[in-house]
Design brief:
About 55% of the residues lie in helices and about 10% in strands. By secondary structure, it is of the alpha/beta class. It has a 7-stranded parallel sheet with strand order 3-2-1-4-5-6-7, sandwiched between helices. Strand 2, helix 3 and strand 3 form a beta-alpha-beta unit. It is globular. About 0% of the residues have low confidence.
Length: about 325
């Protein structure tokens, strides 16, 4: 009888032991992960079938991420409502939508001039949309403004203006849209926050504060609306290649007018818009769209606050020294 070499027995024994160890460690992680992914895919397919014909109100739709969102949801067959301060830019986006996407079945976009800082006019704007379409299925709160200034150099008027647009205006619009959603027991509120709504960095005190407030508002709102079948999704992106820094305010309230390197090298707004659509299709509640460094910083902030504070203090000194050198 032919004997099996001892080396072969040892090899198979080693492989068997290795497989046992790997399966013991990996299977408890892999199986839930695959189950989660499968459920996500099923949800995405189910909701995609329901998406055509949905009324989607997008604020800040005149440029940047808002414009990309308009194209993304328009291509998905939605009835897109474009809202922003600059009507001429909204008309341009509407014209582009109709000109670029002639091969798909679409609904003519609606243009609604909207200034979130004019809170008293928001209810009337929502009524106007409801008179046109009868309902608002998805509200995407995308409009916002940023600041490039340290806390001491930022006038209180700038703090108030940023909070008014990024937080109070968004809250007012959300509250104006909610009654019809609750009545139909259907709808979704999407708030485009920022990774800076989860952790703060130097020279962004006003902006971070407004996004922190928005995150907290949405977390409370999500729980309160659960019984009404109205969903809340918070999107927290990192840097996106838009005109956000160009349009940002300085501490005195004048326009910053510069393209930051971090913004110039940020993610494509089209890519982020598609990820937001996917989040809605998968019924996700809180989504962070950033690279590894901001995610690591987020966990350091919660696991080791002193280390995070030390890192941010060093960052603040480095930025301040660079500013003085100029």
């Amino acid at each position: 009888m032919k004997q099996i070499p001892e080396s072969g027995v040892v090899c198979r024994t080693d492989y068997g032991l290795m497989w046992l160890i790997l399966s013991t460690i990996c299977l408890p992680i892999t199986i839930p992960y695959l189950l989660f992914k499968t459920i996500g895919i099923i949800k995405q397919r189910r909701y995609r079938e329901c998406l055509p014909g949905k009324v989607v109100l997008i604020t800040g739709a005149s440029s940047g991420l808002g414009e990309s969102l308009a194209h993304t949801f328009f291509l998905a067959g939605c009835k897109v409502v474009l809202a922003a301060r600059r009507k001429e830019e909204l008309d341009r986006v509407r014209k582009d939508l109709l000109a670029l996407h002639t091969t798909v079945v679409t609904h003519s976009p609606v243009v609604i001039p909207l200034d979130l800082s004019d809170i008293q006019s928001i209810n009337d704007k929502v009524k106007e949309i409801l008179e046109i379409h009868g309902q608002i299925d998805i509200l995407i709160n995308n409009a916002g403004i940023s600041v490039r200034s340290d806390c001491l150099s930022t006038t209180l008027d700038v703090d108030i203006k940023v909070m008014l647009i990024n937080y109070f205006g968004t809250v007012a619009l959300t509250k104006a849209c909610l009654p019809s959603m609750i009545q139909r027991k259907d709808g979704r509120i999407v708030c485009i926050s920022s990774i800076q709504g989860k952790l703060s960095i130097p020279f962004r005190s006003a902006y971070s504060a407004s996004k922190h407030a928005l995150q907290a508002f949405c977390d409370s709102l999500r729980a309160e609306l659960a019984e009404h079948d109205v969903k809340v999704t918070v999107i927290s992106p990192g840097y996106i290649k838009t005109a956000l820094s160009l349009n940002a305010l300085t501490g005195s309230g004048v326009q910053y007018g510069k393209m930051d390197e971090t913004t110039a090298t940020g993610a494509s707004p089209d890519v982020v818009a598609k990820r937001i659509l996917k989040a809605i299709l998968r019924d996700e509640e809180d989504v962070t769209i950033t690279g590894m460094a901001p995610k690591l910083a987020y966990w350091i902030r919660h696991i080791s606050p002193p280390l995070y504070f030390w890192i941010m203090a060093r960052r603040a000194r480095k930025i301040d020294d660079g500013t003085k050198a100029k």
